[in-house]
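#random but structural
TW: two for the price of one
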Amino acid sequence: MWMPHHRRLPDCSHAPAPPGRLCTLSNGILLIDTISNPPPLAASHPVRRAALLFIFITVALDVLAIGVVIPVLPHLIEQFTGGDVGSAALWVGLFGTVFALMQFVFSPLQGALSDRFGRRPVILLSNLGLGLDFILMALVNTLPLLFLGRILAGITSASFSTANAYIADVVPPEKRAGSYGMIGAAFGLGFIIGPAMGGYLSGIDLRLPFWVAAGLSLANFCYGWFILPESLPPARRAPFDLRRANPVGALVLLRRYPQVMGLAAVLFFSQLAHYVLNSVFVLYADYRYQWGPQQVGYTLALVGASNAVVQAGLVRRVVPWLGERKALLAGLGFGVMGFVLQGLAPNGTWFLLAIPLMALWGFTGPAVQALMTRQVDVHEQGRLQGAVASLASVAGIFGPWMFTNVFASFIGERASWHLPGAPFLLSGALLALGAVLAWRVTRQPRYPGHK
């Protein structure tokens, strides 16, 4: 049973307790604590299991739509640049940077809107915007218009961070790691089918995967419109404040919770390292192993299958067994080993052998989310996820540019050291730095049940 921290609480004997705050009567009786361990309103309601299933399907369809395009977009950009791999890499980096910049600016706004109006409308708008973006990319024939499509996608994409807030609404703290693992499994499922489908469809027509992705996103919008229930009842919604619904205000929220700020920094390094896959994997595999869209699609399907096994089968068992802190550190360690192996792999077989290690990196995300959501006020879960998404978007602003430039520098004619795997080694170093920070910031337990 939860026991309150020993600290002096404000007197509320003359006024009602504000929502989500601790207070005492003049005789010292504790009234409420919804900061450290708020009881989710829907945690015991029969709708919770169905709601989680809806969120699982929503995320899986979104990732499926994105995964269909991954093996194709870099090659489409390469066509626009006349087949120059180095130039295409720089453009891919620019595309990734502007997408993340839009997310950085708009994710806190979307998180605040979800706290005010509910999770459902934000998820629906995200799906609709993604579908329209894919239609635009299927039709355009110039790089500037393709670039515009990525800007629109960055503005509207918010379903993943809002899905995390949705889970915080309906799942008790001690079970959130397993639920976040199921969201990770939805990512894995989408990446099993999506890239393989995209690689196959690109053999028919390079634009066909974009049309299929648009159909999936719009179908997801329709699914959510008729099926997805709202998780945040009106009584638990927070007023909208534009001063807080911006990147600076979002980071101020993180500063109010010191350990959350440290964990968000760990997540930042993890997200930054992950951008090597979004930015250079397709071009790297083509350059080093001569893999085309189909081979890349099948490889990404293997990545998705491995991630699904870890997220759906291992996270809910391993995280409670090890504890969130040890699971976090173990996940980062596996990620370091996987990136080093991929960066040094002399052939495609060795690269594939690193995929299971990379899948075990998947312990990191659910463990971090579970640690952070324990400490944040129930009325600020949407803002927390918006802030985390905004911070991750900072990684997206620099990551694509950094990794594509490193890749181009180590394969160019003027490269003093020919090392195509340099971006992957850099990602390994970033995860090692994140592991050191995670070890330091989680040394002292600051909440009940910490291991």
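TW: number two ↓
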Amino acid sequence: MTDNQELLEDFKIYLKGEKNYSPHTIRAYCSDVYTFLLWLNALSPLELTGDKFSEYLQFIQQINYTKTSVARKIASIRAFYKYLFQEEMIEANPVDNVSIPKQNKMLPNYLFEDEIENILRGIKIETPAGYRNRIILELLWVSGMRISELSGLNYENLNLEQNEIRVFGKGSKERIVLIPDKTKQGLINYIENVSDLICKKDKTPSSPLFINYNGYRLQNQSIRKALKKTLDSIHFTKYVTPHVFRHSFATHLLENGADLRVVQELLGHSSIKNTQIYTHVSLEHLKQVYDHTHPHAK
């Protein structure tokens, strides 16, 4: 193993063990650092100067990466050199003063309540898989869960007497999400009657809640495919992903008077800044209502 490979492997362990980053973030950061090390060629990363790093910034900006991609690559390398500095492998951090390009804030896409109801009605619940898919999409909407949080659910995560589900978000951060009685009854019916029709197997606390016909945990890609199939069948024209249901959850809460801190807690955001973007979505909705209803706005 080369010195660079050892550094990258140790950095990976640092991100997982000390920073508690998600597997997705770790892969992205290590991939960014790996391509950076390839670009350095024979130069050791321990000998990097600020001027040399500026050359790298010019290089990646010529490849027409998006601002988001450039920002992430800079963040990855900054994290790498912060690690090297903490481990006293370098005397000074050569990328410490590098600024990350500002990103254009984009309002998240979301659905109106009647649009979500239309999507849910479009799922054929006569089949076991159809019923399972409907309850999955309904859960995404009413709880604000991420798709990875939902697919990772086990029976031990359920506290249906209290209408609660325990999920593990980014960085394995634990939180409680809530579900209404109607969704709870649908979930109970899935557990007691439908899941065995998909695949009959023992339901232990550590068993996956949502399974495929082979009895294995239903994967994110299968949920995305089921959603796309439904959207195609009802000729739904808006761009919709499972994450749009999460955006819709937050938007509907704020539109109906929920406190921003409550929404932050339910979404599992570490910073309120991540939640505040939904206030802009809500404002856009209010403007649309105003333009369509106030006589002097027309």
